Amino acid sequence: MAVFNTPLHAFQGLPPKKLALLKKDCGMETFGDLLNWFPFRYVDRTRFYTVKDITEDLPLVQLIGRLENIRLIGTGKGKERMSAIFRDQTGTLELVWFQGIKFVQDKLRTGVDVIVFGKPTQFNHSWNIAHPEVELYSAEKAARAPRLQPVYNSSEAMKRAWLDSRGQSLLIQQLLQRIGNQIEETLPEQIIQQHQMIPLRQAYQFIHQPINADELRAAETRLKFDELFFLQLRLLRQNRINKLQLKGFAFGTIGTVFNDFYHNHLPFQLTNAQKRVLKEIRSDVAKPIQMNRLVQGDVGSGKTIVAFMSMLMAIDNGFQACLMAPTEILAQQHFAGLSELAEKIGVKIRLLTGSTKKKDRNILHAELESGELHIIVGTHALLEDKVIFKNLGFVVIDEQHRFGVAQRARLWAKNVLPPHVLIMTATPIPRTLAMTLYGDLDISVIDELPPGRKAIVTKHQFDKDRPAVFNFIKEQITLGRQIYVVYPLIEESEQLDYKNLMDGYEHLQAWFPSPQYQLSILHGGLKSADKEFEMQRFIKKQTQIMVATTVIEVGVNVPNASVMIIESAERFGLSQLHQLRGRVGRGADQSYCLLMTGFKLSREANIRLETMVRTNDGFEIAEVDLQLRGPGDLQGTQQSGDLDLNIADISKDNQLLAYCRQFASAILDTDPDLELPEHALLKQQLLNMEKRKMDWGRIS
Ligand code: ADP
Ligand code: MG
């Protein structure tokens, strides 16, 4: 929209200093930026109270009356205060100022009529309001008085430069007065009518200056609809275009390798969910279109075997496959597990990580290029240009949230047509969020755990219970089990965390002395070879307790480990707690997760702990997480500009989101290229969005 793209310096009457601040502190460049800077809350000033109405539980009140007896009380620095008596027909109260006294002295006069706004408190049987907002009363003000007062964010520097909430509000009002009628409509009249929405122009007026709650609601609905509808329209359209354009390899047959494995070597019966997802993948790869599919499945739901069998489909059709994991430990584990399976059916598989020796690397490169090697498992090292395949047809990415889109694209480039891509994630996210976050992916869900799993028993324990916890560990070790003890590792306080880890390690050593007990320790500061060494000792049961930071969070599989102790559990997010808990409960034994905290916990921390104790269901946990934190902090969302929503909130507006998606989808069904005249506006809007995205691409 032309007017929205006008640079802010064209706003006459905006002094250069303010202009610079808006740019520096709020990133504002254009009229659009300023108008899309929405209030983050509103103060209800629709109602006027009288002094006699005031009660203890009113947070803020607004009154009309007259000022009397304005005077300075007390002497000496810091003891002075300004006082005024406020009177209306029903009584009086005292207004006091401890700061900004000079300002009050200059501005207020005994005998003037004012509108006063603030929080009343009771003192000596009478009411007073400290630091009230005071406006001179005028008939004009009273006429448009009933309103919701917008509150905008402002930095300290902005406050000093008269760009506090009120200053911003005035500025935005000025701008709206000047250019409000140039705001163009983005939706066809018919859609606006159908949903009984207000025009966009009006929505901008109402969001910044609502007279009442109805206006505010109408504005919010309209602006959220715009945001979510166009987001979905863009994603869905992109998805359709991708499907038309992304040519891929069609795997025509299910061949001998797959069938041999399926009939003769499958180590267990697949769950129904695993079978269903395999079918979905099978139907994708049979088409000459690149597959981009995300498999969501809770920890332990058995994603690996699904990935492996999908890779066999590629091998049966003369293609190679690769699996990329986010960490070296994970890559090694995948390799160890898959080699066992591959061996049985004569499939050749190798591992490539940062620490693969040069000599082995050379052999491996040669085998990949000749096509002798069927599957390669590895880390980022797979992305290097030196890694050349004879015929890569299938790519599996584990825990993709650690990989950016650009990295994925480098794998695509390794064949003349892009290989099929299967992404696995153990971080379940609610469906509404997945639809948006992974708008370009198709989604499969493994919503069933293999049979016979015992639910993990989770308990919240206080630090003072530690002796009992240690005795419990001893019992479990006597039973032959292994234990994880995990400490937080948060970048801002890395040193402190390291100290906590080491203190805890020493404490454990005192309780579990060698040679009877052996402890492993694993943290981010160790060299990769040392990490591997410690991990192997634990896997081989040479040590009983693994003391670690969250480096063990993802994917590590030691079925004999049955107790997960999480120290300072209140410092972990829900999805992280769930991931960590997923490290146990992988064998036949009853497993336990103990969440250790002090007594002092925030409300949110309590909800997180209660949720963990209540349920093992990753999707339920993800819902709570989304409610608690909003989508911004969920894993994986940081990479997605699509969730930079201005007014809609995916954790609260999920119904509207689902509706918008459906509505957008229906439009594309009837008019895929938006060529009908009634959709011209939509098409124009999409083009504008794409253009804006490209501009961003150039900047960043
Ligand atoms: P995740 O989905 O967390 O990656 P894995 O693929 O590592 O889970 O599987 C967890 C464990 O469950 C592995 O030991 C695997 O062999 C086992 N498993 C997977 N599918 C089944 C099944 N259908 N029946 C029994 N065990 C299974
Ligand atoms: Mg896994």
Key traits:
single chain; 700 residues; alpha/beta; OB fold (Dihydrolipoamide Acetyltransferase, E2P); Rossmann fold; seven-stranded mixed β-sheet; seven-stranded parallel β-sheet; 24 helices; 22 strands; 42% helix; globular; binds adenosine-5'-diphosphate; binds magnesium ion
SSE diagram, text form:
Elements: H1 16-26, H2 31-35, E1 41-45, E2 61-73, E3 81-88, E4 91-97, H3 101-107, E5 113-118, E6 120-123, E7 126-130, E8 133-136, H4 139-143, E9 147-151, H5 156-160, H6 165-179, H7 189-194, H8 200-208, H9 213-245, H10 256-265, H11 272-285, E10 292-297, H12 303-316, E11 320-324, H13 328-344, E12 349-352, H14 358-370, E13 375-378, E14 392-398, H15 405-412, E15 420-425, H16 431-437, E16 442-446, E17 457-462, H17 466-478, E18 482-486, H18 494-511, E19 519-522, H19 528-539, E20 545-548, E21 561-566, H20 574-581, E22 592-597, H21 603-614, H22 618-629, H23 654-670, H24 680-699
Parallel strand pairs: 4-7, 10-15, 10-16, 11-13, 11-14, 12-13, 14-15, 17-22, 18-20, 18-21, 19-20, 21-22
Antiparallel strand pairs: 1-9, 2-3, 2-5, 3-4, 5-8, 6-7
Helix pairs in contact: 8-9, 9-23, 10-12, 11-12, 21-22
The structure holds adenosine-5'-diphosphate and magnesium ion.
Residues 303-304, 426, 555 line the site of magnesium ion (MG).
